[in-house]
Design a protein that fits this description.
mainly beta, Pectate Lyase C-like, 16-stranded mixed β-sheet, 12-stranded parallel β-sheet, 1 helix, 2% helix, 52% strand, elongated, disordered N terminus
């Protein structure tokens, strides 16, 4: 075992790390990480004008601008879907109009075509808009979800498809899922805003066919409040890029990564995420970061902010291969940081603070191998304990400034 503890002055210079080559996994079958999709949509020369404001007042100024293939509008209570000069739907259902617009796009297309929606309306919780491959959706209004249900229903749904993009989406109400995508490839979620009173915000996974990864997912900015479960959750994803996740008073985690590899996360900012639970602002579980049978560094997180809620950072169930540059954790109801049966985890590679709340704890369950190669560093810890039990292998604590922060670790 190699262990060290020493107190240093607060860091004044940023730490610059060499970026390791993208790790490759051994299972599911033949995983690889292709370039994330960044190309602009290929569309026809119709043009939509941005609309500003709706019942929530959160519509982006650039929503709906640019070229499109199909357009959905509302006048009074009548929804209309058009593709060029052809009217594809007229009636009272926002969902039916949107689905008609999506279905009007060229069958068998191999480049993206775009649907713009102008107006706000209602979906039932037990319904879904299904996206086909090579579809771009831009919703310039708010979808309010009513009622209840069960299963994988979501206002925005994609399964077994590729090259789908949601540029803007504002969602309120009681969805089962806000966005649900399963066994997909090349996904872009742009500006997503969900102010909910139930459900899970964004779920992207491979659970329909676990022998294949969901690949190449980009999420620019997601805001979720009031969900009954997580703000954002992935499972079985190879190649994940997230800009910012903002979680406010979510039932469970702000960001939960399960069995996800080759991920780069900018910021997780959570306030009140998972209050009264063991979930965390940022949680890694179910062999997250495991590539084949090893844990090379392939999960990179810029900043985790956690105020109140359940835990701050939680790594569990044979996860690892992670570096978090900066943490700011305060007054969590459960552990500020809990590392349990994880491998190659670096907390606060640049800097961090933990204030109040539950202890920083390194622990282990007997059904998994103990912690290994854990580095806790560059932290100012105030009014909470630091505990390691049982002793892990190659655990290092260094550059800790402790203010009323008892230390109980292995020597």
């Amino acid at each position: 075992m190699s262990r060290s503890i020493r107190t240093a002055f607060a860091l004044t210079a940023l730490f610059t790390a060499a970026v390791a080559p993208t790790a490759q996994a051994a299972a599911p079958a033949e995983p690889r990480t292709a370039d994330l999709v960044t190309a602009a949509s290929t569309v026809q020369p119709n043009r939509a004008q941005a609309i500003k404001g709706d019942q929530t007042g959160k519509i982006a100024a650039d929503c709906g601008t640019g070229t499109y293939n199909a357009l959905v509008t509302v006048s009074g209570s009548t929804w209309t879907a058009r593709n060029g000069s052809s009217t594809r739907y007229t009636g009272s259902s926002m969902l039916a109009a949107m689905q008609a617009a999506v279905n009007s796009l060229t069958a068998g297309r191999t480049s993206k075509q775009r649907v713009v929606v102008q107006g706000s309306g209602t979906f039932s919780a037990g319904s879904r808009l299904s996206l086909a491959s090579y579809t771009v959706l831009d919703v310039c209004g708010t979808i309010n979800v009513t009622g209840s249900g069960s299963g994988d229903y979501a206002p925005i749904y994609a399964r077994g498809v590729r090259d789908v993009e949601v540029q803007h989406l504002n969602l309120t109400g009681t969805p089962i899922y806000g966005i649900f995508m399963r066994n997909v490839t090349n996904v872009i979620l742009g500006q997503i805003d969900m102010r909910l009173s139930n459900g899970l915000g964004v779920r992207i996974d491979n659970r329909g066919d676990t022998s294949q990864w969901t690949r190449n997912v980009r999420i620019d900015h997601v805001y979720v409040s009031g969900s009954g479960s997580h703000a954002v959750e992935t499972y079985g994803v190879d190649g994940l890029s997230i800009g910012t996740v903002i979680a406010r008073n979510t039932g469970h985690s702000g960001l939960l990564l399960n069995q996800t590899i080759n991920a780069t996360i900018g910021t997780v900012d959570a306030d009140g995420a998972g209050t009264g639970t063991g979930y965390a602002a940022f949680r890694m579980a179910n062999r997250n970061g495991r590539v084949g049978s090893s844990y090379p560094t392939n999960i990179r997180v810029g900043t985790v902010i956690a105020r109140g809620g359940g835990r701050g950072v939680f790594c569990v169930s044979e996860s690892g291969g992670a570096v978090i540059d900066r943490v700011t954790i305060s007054n969590t109801g459960n552990n500020s940081i809990l590392i349990e049966n994880c491998y190659n985890v670096n907390i606060a590679a640049v800097s961090g603070s933990v204030t109040g709340g539950g202890e920083i704890r390194l622990a282990a369950r007997t059904e998994f191998a103990n912690n290994r190669d854990i580095l806790i560093q560059n932290l100012t810890v105030t009014n909470t304990r630091i505990t390691e039990n049982p002793c892990g292998t190659n655990t290092t604590f260094r550059n800790l400034i402790r203010n009323n922060a008892p230390l109980n670790i292995c020597s």
